[in-house]
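Consider the following input, taken from an annotated entry for GNAT family N-acetyltransferase (Herbiconiux oxytropis).
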Amino acid sequence: MATPDPTARLRFREMDSADLDDLAALLGDAGVMRYYPATKTREGAAAWIRWTQGNYARYGHGLWIIETHEGAFVGDCGLTWQQVNGVPELEVGYHVRSELHGQGYATEAATACVEFARGHSEAEALVAIIHPDNRASERVAEKLGMVRVADDLGESFPRRVLRMPLRRSPADAS
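Applying the prediction step yields:
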């Protein structure tokens, strides 16, 4: 399966059951999961891996493990189909270890995923679905070129939806 191209500091690979310890720590971290309804248990992290592997099989993409070129675990980042107000949308999502927040890893990984989506997806647009209090994640989406277009009302709280086109128009090329 194809993955996004490596960046200056990061590489991508498929998520598998050998990642359970790292993902359980990541998704069980209250700082990482601050804007989710709850942290994930070890079984929740195992279910996350199974869900991701299902996305690989069904769509040819999903969340990938992001790690340094030396192999240190950074988090996950990738492309998943989500429902936004009842409409399927391709989302770029990311989780980075708490101690690495603020170092640009989410932006770097998400930028590579945008480029991957342009070359490997039929989607016309890419979204980020963000808790209204998660300003840091919203800034990442804005750095990608996304703008706020709506609120998703499908959860117990409204989530901000930022969007960007994946297909460049001929006017963009000039």
